[in-house]
Amino acid sequence: MADLFIINLCSDSIAFEVKSKNRVNLDLISISEELATLMKMKIRVSLPVILILEGDDGQSITIYPSGRLLLRKFPTEESAQEVAQLLSPKLYSP
Question: What is the full DSSP assignment across 27-72?
Fold first, then answer.
């Protein structure tokens, strides 16, 4: 299966950025609990414009309605890729 996203290191090198290859408009409030459970993380912020999930290890996932993700404190691109693969069916599938 082809990836539904593109992943890059952010310009400031403190996070990985994931963008959907297709246009999406997510209802972050309605999917926040499901994503938190899937990622085994706590919801730090849940608003219509931003969802921030945070793990006990300090890792965080910021999700925007456009499907853009910022993955902070993930040590390698491979670890960020695994997270993006896990989330992509919930965020980017038609």
Answer: -HHHHHHHHHHHHT-EEEEEETTEEEEE-TTS-EEEE-TTS-EEEE
What local confidence, expressed as pLDDT, does residue 1 receive?
43
Strand partners, 51: 46, 63
Q: Which of 78, 58, 62 is nearest to 70 (CA)?
A: 62
Q: Which residue(s) pair with 7 in the sheet?
A: 18
pTM for the whole thing? Answer: 0.92
CATH number at 47 reads: 3.30.310
Q: How many domains are there within the chain? A: 1
- Residues 6 or more apart whose CB falls under 8 angstroms from that of 1 comprise none
